[in-house]
Specification:
- The chain is an alpha/beta fold and 188 residues long.
- It has one domain: Rossmann fold, CATH 3.40.50.
- It contains 6 helices and 6 strands, in the order βαβαβαβαβαβα.
- It has a 6-stranded parallel sheet with strand order 4-3-2-1-5-6, sandwiched between helices.
- Helix 4 (116-127) packs across helix 5.
- The longest helix is centred in the N-terminal third of the chain and has 18 residues, at 23-40.
- It is globular.
- The mean pLDDT is 94.
- This is SLOG family protein.
- Pfam families: YpsA (PF06908).
- InterPro entries: YspA.
């Protein structure tokens, strides 16, 4: 896969209410591990819609990886101002990343007009990528179930790999931190 779409839960769906929650370090480590594996297999671009949570954390991971790898990241929000109702921290992160990513463009001009914009976003991201990586617990898919359904439909029509980071993968990352005696989970 040269281009992969990454998505997953919003912070509240993972019981993360503080932007300094230690769980974020584990999530980012799991994303980093999967992305590096994909880069080693030829990944060149990561696409996200810029949602708070897994997608913004993925962008932060990619920006860190740029020091070591030739990887690009594109952010394609479904509409202008998607971040305006988010907590201030995530609004600031979104604004910062929009200035430094390799590609940034809203799918629709103007603000939110209806749920069709989210469906169009999912279809666009799937059409522009060779596969996807989802942080998901398939028993509790939350808001990404709509993306997953669209990806599964595409996968049934053509070769569209759906890769996942599961709760089990996150448990393995936590165990790696414990095994390496890493006690400071904060981001640098």
């Amino acid at each position: 896969m040269r281009i992969v779409t990454v998505t997953g839960y919003k912070p509240i769906e993972m019981n993360i209410y503080n932007p300094n929650d230690k769980k974020i370090a584990f999530i980012k480590a799991a994303i980093r591990k999967k992305i590096i594996s994909l880069i080693d297999d030829g990944l060149e671009w990561v696409l996200v819609s810029g949602q708070m949570g897994v997608e913004l954390w993925t962008v932060e991971v990619i920006l860190d990886l740029k020091d070591e790898y030739d990887i690009k990241v594109g952010v394609v929000p479904p509409f202008e101002g998607q971040e305006t109702r988010w907590p201030e921290h995530y609004q600031n992160v979104f604004q910062e990343i929009s200035l430094v990513v390799d590609f940034f463009q809203c799918l629709y001009s103007g603000e939110y007009k209806g749920p069709f914009q989210f469906k169009a976003r999912d279809k666009w991201l799937i059409n522009k990528s060779d596969g996807c990586l989802l942080l998901i617990d398939e028993e509790n898919p939350g808001s990404i179930r709509f993306f997953l359904e669209e990806a599964q439909a595409e996968s049934s029509r053509s070769e569209y790999p759906i890769l996942t980071i599961t709760p089990f993968d996150l448990e393995e990352i936590v165990q790696e931190f414990i095994d390496q005696n890493i006690t400071n989970y904060e981001d640098d």
